[in-house]
């Protein structure tokens, strides 16, 4: 279960997944939201949804590569799926890039939820936010 970010409308209902499904979160998630609600009233995830599951905290301190300006890691050692650290929208904001066809002429699917369109296509009229 990969959290793009912590907002309740993006978390959904993790309880609908089997208990064997781990949670994968970005930088800052554990510090801000664990323990979960109700123990932490400011935490969007519910304790019942995470209890007993393993939480994997991704680190981009030494990224595998940089895609554009975003640190990225090769997920599960497979170069068909990359997770990008895309801060700015929220704590732990992540995006993914999936390679859908092989070289030559590889194609990709970008999985993103972005607050600022300029995070991915900066222009003179739509620049990156400074904070």
UniProtKB/TrEMBL annotation:
One GO term in the molecular function aspect is: metal ion binding
Q: Can you tell which superkingdom this protein's organism belongs to?
A: Eukaryota
* Keyword Metal-binding found: yes
**Keywords, ordered alphabetically:** Hydrolase, Metal-binding, Zinc
Task: Return the SUPFAM superfamilies for the record.
Answer: Metallo-hydrolase/oxidoreductase
Q: Which family is this sequence assigned to?
A: Belongs to the metallo-beta-lactamase superfamily.
| The name this protein goes by in its record | Metallo-beta-lactamase domain-containing protein
Q: Which InterPro entries match?
A: MBL_superfamily_lactonases, RibonucZ/Hydroxyglut_hydro
